[in-house]
């Protein structure tokens, strides 16, 4: 239950520079069209950004704190092999919201949690999140999920997922 527009030639599009109808390419977005309950907007912000010319902004007036497809957010899966090590990073700017970022190994039938970062700290400047994760046995993909869990404004930019080993 997400919206997406795919064009693999644009790569990860982690700075949200490429979009169609307000939806950044190559990301799964939990939008007002797909989230059952909530009052929020998602848009490309050309005034507040860390990298490139724009960032992705969530302006949330009401939402579920359940996370996943029940809350505003975005996700992406990347093909990976067991034993591969990845560095995941992004920059965020937060005003009164609470958000959660989860990195996990997944397969068609199950997932195994990795680093989880949850914060309700209001920031007055861009802040970097960074973690490392090794793909567990029997997993064939790395999944990044980021959800907004309480009202406020949340910006995200320059998401990177890089194999380091």
Helices, strands, pairings?
Blueprint: E1 19-20, E2 23-24, E3 28-30, E4 38-45, E5 55-63, E6 73-79, E7 85-95, E8 98-106, E9 111-119, E10 127-134, E11 141-150, E12 152-163
Antiparallel strand pairs: 1-2, 3-6, 4-5, 5-12, 6-11, 7-10, 7-12, 8-9, 8-11
User: What about the largest sheet?
Assistant: 5 strands, antiparallel
Shape: globular
Helix content: under 10%
Q: What is the level 1 CATH name?
A: Mainly Beta
Q: What is the residue-mean pLDDT, rounded to a whole number?
A: 96
What is the strand arrangement across the widest sheet? 3-6-11-8-9
CATH second-level architecture: Sandwich
Number of domains: 1
Number of strands: 12
Describe this structure in words.
This protein has 165 residues and is an all-beta fold. It has one domain (8-163): Sandwich (Jelly Rolls), CATH 2.60.120. The protein is 0% helix and 55% strand. The chain has strands at 19-20, 23-24, 28-30, 38-45, 55-63, 73-79, 85-95, 98-106, 111-119, 127-134, 141-150, 152-163. It has a five-stranded antiparallel beta sheet, with no helix packed on it. A hairpin with a 2-residue loop joins β1 and β2 (23-24). The protein is globular, with a radius of gyration of 15 Å. It starts with 18 loop residues before the first strand and ends with a strand. The mean pLDDT is 96.
Outline:
The chain has 165 residues and is mainly β. The protein has strands at residues 19-20, 23-24, 28-30, 38-45, 55-63, 73-79, 85-95, 98-106, 111-119, 127-134, 141-150, 152-163. The protein has a single domain (8-163), classed as Sandwich (Jelly Rolls).
């Amino acid at each position: 239950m997400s919206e997406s527009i795919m064009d693999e030639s644009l790569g990860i599009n982690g700075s949200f520079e490429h979009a169609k109808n307000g939806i950044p390419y190559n990301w799964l977005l939990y939008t007002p069209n797909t989230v059952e309950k909530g009052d929020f907007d998602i848009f490309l912000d050309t005034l507040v950004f860390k990298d490139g010319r724009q960032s992705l902004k969530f302006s949330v007036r009401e939402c579920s704190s359940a996370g996943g497809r029940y809350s505003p957010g975005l996700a992406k899966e990347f093909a990976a092999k067991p034993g591969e090590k990845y560095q995941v990073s992004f920059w965020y700017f937060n005003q009164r919201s609470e958000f959660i970022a989860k990195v996990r190994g997944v397969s068609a039938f199950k997932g195994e949690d990795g680093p989880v970062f949850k914060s309700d700290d209001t920031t007055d400047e861009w802040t970097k999140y960074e973690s490392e994760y090794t793909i567990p046995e029997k997993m064939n993909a790395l999944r990044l999920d980021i959800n907004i869990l309480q009202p406020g404004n949340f910006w995200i930019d320059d998401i990177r997922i890089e194999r380091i080993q």
